[in-house]
Amino acid sequence: MTVVRNPVLAGCHPDPTICRVGSTYYLVTSTFEYFPGLPVFRSEDLVHWQQIGHVVDRDGQLDFDGIASSGGLYAPTLRHHDGTFWLVCTLVDQQDPARGGNFVMTATDPAGPWSDPVWLAVDGIDPSLFFDDDGRIWLHGTRPASRPEWHDQTEVWVRELDRATWQLTGPEHVVWSGAVRGAVWAEGPHLYKVDGTYYLLAAEGGTEFHHAVSVARADSVTGPYCGNRSNPVLTHRHLGRGSDVVGVGHADLVQAPDGSWWAVLLGMRPYGGYHYNLGRETFLVPVAWEDGWPVFAPGVGRVTTEVEVPFAVEPAPGPVAAHRTGSAVVRPDDLRWTSLRGPAADFATPHSDGWELGMRPTTLAEPRTPAFLGVRQQHLDVEVQATVLADLAPGEETGLAVRQSEADHVRLFVTGGEDAPGRRVVVVHRRRGLDTVLGEHRVRGGAGEPVTLAVWASGQEYSLLAAGPGEPLTVLGTVDGRTLDSVATGGFLGLWIGVYASSNGRPTSTTVQVEGFEYRPAP
Question: Domain 326-521 maps to which CATH number in 2.60.120.200, 3.90.1150.10, 1.10.340.30, 3.20.20.60?
Fold first, then answer.
C-alpha cells in the first residue's frame, strides 16, 4: 500500500474535473482571468500529475479583455467519448453579465490544439456533459432558481444536446435545488450511470467554509432524483475553521482500471489563522459503494492529508516532478507560467533561462493585459528570486509582484530616471485599491546593471529583498500575507508570484531582461 500526500495539485487549482481513457487519467481546473486558461494534466495513478497543455492557449479563442479578477473561466467539465475529448465551461464577466456564457470545445489530443468555442444557448454556470449508453448527450448546469424560496437558491437543469447542430433539443428538466433547505448555490453538477442507475453529484453551500458534496439518484436521466438520506455525503463545515482542510466540495468521480472509485475535489489549507493564501487546491479521496450510494472517504468521512493509493507509481520526469524535487529555476518552457487575459507572446520573448519583457503602459491595477508573467504560489514557505536588467525612463518600473487581484497585490520594483547614485528599489502594498509605500532602498549599480529581487514567504510573513551587483540581499519591507488571501480580499483566487514591467500609462519602448527566475520551496 502506497501512502501519498494531499493535495495532489497544490496551489490554486480549483474545480477539478477528471476522466479516464484506458489507463490514463486527465484533469482540468479553473483559471479565471489567467492565460493560458484551463490547464490539462495527465496521470497514470491519480497522484502524480504532469501538465501537458491548456485548453485556451491562443489569441482569439476567447476574449478576456476588461474582465476583472476572479471573473473569467469557471468550473470546467472534461469528458471523453468516442475518441474525442469534450470540455464545457463558463466565461463570466461579473461587471457585464450579458458578456460570455457557456461554451463547448473539443480535441482529439488533450494536450491540444482544442477547437474554438461553440457557444451554447443556455444561461447559468457550471455546465457538464453526460454521454448515455444510447448515444444521447445530456447537458446540465446550474442557474438561479426561477422561483427561489430563499436567497441564492439555485437549481440544476438537464436537457438533451444535439451533437450535429450543437443546439439544445427537447424539453428541459429541473432536477435538483440542493439537499438541504436553505443551502445556497447548489452547483457543479455531474451525472454518472452506475449499474443502470443515474447519479447526480453536486456541490452546495457556496465555495467557501460551508461547501459540501451531495448526491441523488434516479432511474431516468431526467429524474425524478431522490437525495441520499446521508446528504451531505462529504463536508468539513462541522469541523470548524481550525481544521487542516476546509471548504471541501465540487467533486468529480472516476473509476480506476482495477474497479475502484475515486473523487477529486477542491479544498483549502488554512494557516496563520483562517486564511488560505494558496487558494483552492485539488485533493483526492477514495470512494466506496454501499447500498447503491457512493461513500466518500469510507471509514474516515473527511479529506485527509495522507491517502492510501495502492496503484501509485513513481512520478514521470517533467515540470511537476522536477518542481516537487526542489528544482528552482522556472524555465520559459515551463507550463506553469501564466499571463493575464492575453498571450505572453504579445509582450515577452523567451531566452535560455529567462525572458525579454517588452514593457507596457498597463499597470497591475487594470483589468487588461500588463507585461506580467507569474506562477502559482504552491508552498507555504517559498523563496522566489529573479534578476532584472533595464535602462528605465522616468516613471517606469520593473520587478516582482505578489498578486491577488487588481485591488490587492504587492510590488517590489526598480524605478528609473533618477540622477542619484545607485538604483532605487521600492516596496508598495496595494490594498483595497490604495497604494502604500512600505520601504525603499538604494542598491549598487547604474542604469542597465542587474538588480536581484526576492520574495521570501515564511508562513504568513512575506519579506521583500533586493541587492545590486556584489551586494547581499537586503530586506526592504515585510507584508502580512493575511491581507492578501481571498478571505481578506474577496474573490476566488490563490496568490501568484511573478515578474512585471510597467511604464504607468506613459508611452514606452523599454525592454527588460529577466534572468534566472527561481521558485524554491523552503526546506
Answer: 2.60.120.200
